[in-house]
Amino acid sequence: MNNRFRNIMKLPGKLLRYEWLSVHNYPVLLPFYHVVSDEPLPHVLNYPYRNVRQFMEELDFLLKHYRPIGMEELLTQTHERSRVFHLSFDDGLRQCATVIAPILLRKGIPATFFVNPGFADNKALFHRYKASLIISRLKEGKQGETWLRERGFSFGKLLQLPIREAETADRLADELGISWDHFLKETQPYMTLDQIRELEGRGFSIGGHSWDHPEFASLDFEEQYRQVSASMDWIGSHLHQKHRVFAFPYTDDGVSARLLKQLADDNLCDHTFGTAGLKYDSMPRHLQRFPAETSEALPVSLKMEMFYSQLRGYLGRQTVKHP
Fold this sequence. Notes:
This protein is α/β, with parallel strands linked by helices.
């Protein structure tokens, strides 16, 4: 089912009252974000991130209707019919330490931060953040979109750049005089290992998010396994986490039951996470998270997701199955 049709099917949820939708049963609520910032982030054009005010309003909504729980409670207790939520954040961006964590601590909300070791300490930059930087530079001029079209891309197509074409971003950056090394040094978009350790020391959970954020559906089994094992080995070497958890980048599309079983059998991961929304999963140690960064505020997008979850339930399609 394509995203456009899926979004159309969710629309009636906007018109319904949360109180009516909330009386039904749903999987445990696992909303996730990437970054919160009051400043424009030229490297983040891939999703509509929240400013501090918006983020705090969404947290207040969650706290009004749900009880926050940590990773320990999420994984060791059952949550059928429970009104609880566990918050997580992907990619390990610097604002996780400087903006998000202080807010969560003030509000008493536990959370998990899923990081890419290949980017920690600002060693490298995610290929789609590279694409965002290129587009941000081109938007400064009047002919930027024309310049890009002459090279076979639109802004939208470049933002969807797959990792196998990452060299395209490097080539375009060279033409524009953009230096990734300079950006990483001056902006420091990612957390350092010390900052990640400080989060751990403050009681937050840290999980793996692959080594360098590839699209798993484009990888063979061996490379999928390597991406998970490399990130989890890094966490095991540098941190002291009770639970070994991993969130697949983008989605878990293309992730087989065989891979999930192998990760569990090899004790690489206690639990893994996808991003399919309010859905159950056929694999007992694999949970689905809910993307909070949409064009709608969380109270609205959650209603839409709840309506869609009920609709899928009536159709017998509320459980994600892996090939």
